[in-house]
Amino acid sequence: MTTSSTSDPSLAPLLRSNSSSTLGPPSSRTSISDGSSNAKLRHKTRALRAVAFVVSIVAALGAGSITVFSLYGHLFQSRLHYTQFQINGIASAMSISMYVPVPVIGYLCDRVGPSPLSFLSAVLLGGGYGLAAGMYHKGLAEVSGGVRGVKTTFAPMVFAFVVIGVGTSALYLSAITTCAKNFGKSKYRGLMMVAPIASFGLSGMVLSQIGSRILYETQPDGGRGDVNVFHFFLFLCILLAALGLIGTFTLRIVDEKDLIDEAVEELERSGLLEGSDVFRRRADQNYGAIDSNVEEGGLIDPARDDDDDDDNDRLKKTWLLNAETRRFLSDHTMWWFCVGFWLIIGPGEAFINNLGTVIGTLYSPTMKSNETSAATHVSIMATVSTFARLLAASLSDLLSPNPHSQHPQTGFPSSLPELRQKLSVSRIALFIAAAIILSIGTLVLASGVVQEHAERFWIVSGAIGAGYGAVFSLTPIIVTMIWGVENFGTNFGIIALTPAVGSTMWGLIYSAVYQAGARDSPPLVGGDDDDVFCFGQKCYSSTFWAMTVCVWVGAAMVLWAWKGRNGWSKSGIVI
User: Fold this and answer.
1) Roughly how many angstroms between the first and final C-alpha of the chain, as a whole number?
2) How much is the pTM?
3) What is the pLDDT of residues 394-431, one digit of tens each?
4) By CB count within 10 A, which of 3, 217, 406, 438 is most buried?
């Protein structure tokens, strides 16, 4: 961990201010202090935490609407006559817009609170799905009117899904950040944080069932047809706008002022609190002669009114979060962990996106096999992944050592665990075990034992789903354990950017290998010359061998961050 000089004594009175005000205009409306001995106030704050927790889970369940694109994507082609390239363009724009803004959204969530981000998500998701519904309806009218070649709805549809991607990030991050900060002191803080993450994973299954079983088109014989895309988009528009608005009033950080004060004191005790010229500049601008203030007991005069106290608290919060961001980015172990996470999670993301085409390579086009289907393994992965997320978080809470506080660890005695369990398993050991389980799935597929034996494919989808889910749940827990909760949105947002890069990289590699194999495969019966089906191990084997090695390298990098030179273990970090 990075170390620095002892703090400037002149800043201590300001940083330890006991003002009762909140920390800034936006978050001041979402920060409640339960430090009072009044029993009613304590019950009220507990109730606020409980409500925020429930809303976080429901919000994450709705935010996963982005994962059901395959439910209606093919209808863009058959009903609106979009090309496959155009459909992939919409999906790619949606995915990129969901991941790329994550660091910025996390930064804003830490500084203005989750409530404004939830309101932003209501506007973006409601507007995005509303626009998509309108464009789909207009597209149907164009096609029924005989319009060919001119698709005036495509560009607005791409824009709609870009807006949906950004709105999804805002709602999802506001949900998990609320849980991370509100339950940082809880014995089961890992499980409380992973609950909305697991809910996000289940969202695709829940929403796809609603779309296919309730909001469906009725066939001429009265049976269920495809999802009614227009009605489904309107349903999501209303649902997600309502969830975002509810979150605006309920997703709040309880005791945020105390959280900041404790973090400042923790860093001051450890000797890592750096002096900042910001305070002196602020004092020069507002109060003139700072020397006399310092001599009389500090930069803050207790007689100043509440507006000045609010200003000081706002300044303190900004300074602390900026200081923690600098420490996070300058910590070499973070970069080992970040790159390792990227190498591990990328293959999992690429497998999820290409599962259907992988299954299609297991049998020759001339062989009609009903051994398995993509829908079956999507359900297997969703179920196993959700279970693995909850199990990993539970094991983390029950078996792994907990640091003394919820703030950034310094390696000093104050970071040591309060109580050591008889059986203690590091979260990094759990993380590496999850990565190995993921690699077992890619290894089995690469070896070819599933070729022409689709009944064995559950081993692949189950192992990758379990490893992927566990790694994704342990990562935010590890971030909060090492670097604290007060700057969680920014820290996790930086690391969460890597899945998009990994998914894109491995998706391109898989596509290149598949296309190379397709050139040696027979065309589909009755198909065009361009409709080439790739059959056999040559379509995927080399890609998944490379993925397996990649996961092992990523696990080794995380192990080095833990046990290597100046790693967490040697620095006294409890993890």
Assistant:
1) 13
2) 0.78
3) 999 898 888 877 777 766 554 455 444 567 899 999 99
4) 438
